[in-house]
Amino acid sequence: MITRYNYSLKNHNTFGIDVRAGKFIGLRSVKETGRLFEKRNYDPARILVLGAGSNILFTGDYDGLIIKPLFHGIIIEKSNTDTVTVTAEAGLEWDKFVEWAVKNELAGIENLSLIPGNVGAAPIQNIGAYGVEVSETITRVHTVRMDNGRARSFLNHECKFGYRESIFKHEMKGKFLITAVEFRLGKRTGSYRLSYGNLEERVKQKGEITLSTIREAVIDIRNEKLPDYKKLGNAGSFFKNPVIGRDSYLKIKDSYTDLPAWETADGRYKIAAAWLIEKDGWKGKTYGSAGVHANHALVLINHGNATGKEIMEMSEKIITSVKSKFNIELEREVNVF
Ligand code: FAD
Ligand code: NAP
Fold first, then answer.
1. Which residue's C-alpha comes closest to atom 41 of ligand 1?
2. Among this protein's residues, is 237 annotated catalytic?
3. Can you give the pTM of this predicted structure?
């Protein structure tokens, strides 16, 4: 266990916000995690579990306890004709896991290449990109209860996965530390998901369609489109794409015929939040040292010395402005502390 006091979090969040944690503990194993909480020395309401900090906005110092799982193993549980069941530990960098799967010719998560963050956070918002959600491959989420240190595993259906949603963002928020995630990955490659945008075309430019060429194409597209948080602090999409009812959709579509939207399985419509923000004139705007990225309106950025409060205030202004123009309430995807 690594313990630090009054610890700077600047290198532990991709916005690069310079705040401090009252106490910071890095945990080296699942056993150590159970032991820490068994003692019941800490109030779960004053604990924040941190992954890579790529979906977090700190608006000030965190005076409670920050816990960071550091264990990062990959364990193959079983293998049969078509699938391999594999457990990845919480502290493993997500993209290292994708890289491992692709190298071992295991299919299912290749479209999720280069998403920042650690494995432990992947189920929290059911990470997704290029037409794939991580919930499609998750079989179990292993956790430890933060009020008593007991282990509990959630089966896929118990996680209540939805679009950038899970039970860990709602009923179970702040109650469990995710120690590991179990995945079922495919051995039989060949049924890939390439219909998103021009992904298939980009993959074919690389040659034969394989897990490796899909991964390479996704990495290329992401590097071209998204700002590098190491150079320009950001947390990816700051807002979720709103999902609205058919009537509301048709009403807005009447005034804005170019509104990008996709019908969801339940007959509602997912609207591109980036389009709403851009149409409302926010793209490239600044607010103090905070800003909206000039090429990607969904990404709020730290131009260098932004405080979390500035970024938060800017997001509030965007929400209010989009609401008054389109009557759509944007919801933050980023977790604010
Ligand atoms: P953190 O930001 O550290 O934490 C996020 C939340 O999860 C917090 O509430 C935290 O308390 C909780 N948490 C973290 N670890 C645990 C744990 N072990 N147990 C319990 N709770 C935990 N997201 C997508 O879905 N798709 C994308 O394509 C995508 N692209 C991105 C691109 C960029 C450039 C950036 C910066 C972000 C992007 N994101 C994307 C958002 C982000 O990468 C994901 O949400 C990622 O899963 C966050 O992982 P993390 O380890 O950084 O979590
Ligand atoms: P993009 O390809 O420019 O598309 C803009 C939006 O349109 C996306 O949010 C996407 O929704 C939606 N979209 C596009 N084609 C779609 C289709 N065929 N069916 C349904 N929805 C479609 O988006 P981008 O910003 O460059 O991101 C590319 C992918 O990476 C997206 O999947 C995005 O979610 C993911 N990403 C996520 C984050 C994050 O922080 N959450 C950050 C960067 C990228 P979806 O978002 O639902 O896919």
1. 55
2. yes
3. 0.97
CA 100 to CA 108: how far, in whole Å?
12
Considering every ligand atom shown, identify the ligand nearest to the alpha carbon of residue 47 and give its number.
1
Using DSSP, state whether 309 is helix, strand or coil. Answer: helix
Catalytic site includes residue 46: no
- In 3D space, the residue among 249, 239, 248 whose CA is nearest the CA of residue 274 turns out to be 239
| Residues 114 and 95: beta-carbon distance below 8 Å | yes
Q: 124, 132, 145, 226: which to mutate for ligand 1, most atoms within 8 A of CB?
A: 124
Ligand nearest to the CA of 55: 1
For atom 33 of ligand 1, the residue with the nearest CA is: 236
pLDDT tens over the chain, length 337 residues: 999 999 999 999 999 999 999 999 999 999 999 999 998 888 989 999 999 999 999 999 999 999 999 999 999 999 999 999 999 999 999 999 999 999 999 999 999 999 999 999 999 999 999 999 999 999 999 999 999 999 999 999 999 999 999 999 999 999 999 999 999 999 977 789 999 999 999 999 999 999 999 999 999 999 999 999 999 999 999 999 999 999 999 999 999 999 999 999 999 999 999 999 999 999 999 999 999 999 999 999 999 999 999 999 999 999 999 999 999 999 999 999 9
Using CB atoms within 10 A of its CB, is residue 299 exposed (0-12), middle (13-18) or buried (19+)? buried
Q: How far apart are CA 302 and CA 310, in angstroms?
A: 9
Give the whole-angstrom CA distance, residue 52 versus residue 335.
13
333 catalytic? Reply is yes
Q: Which atom of ligand 1 is nearest to the CA of 134?
A: 25
Structure tokens at 275: 């389009």
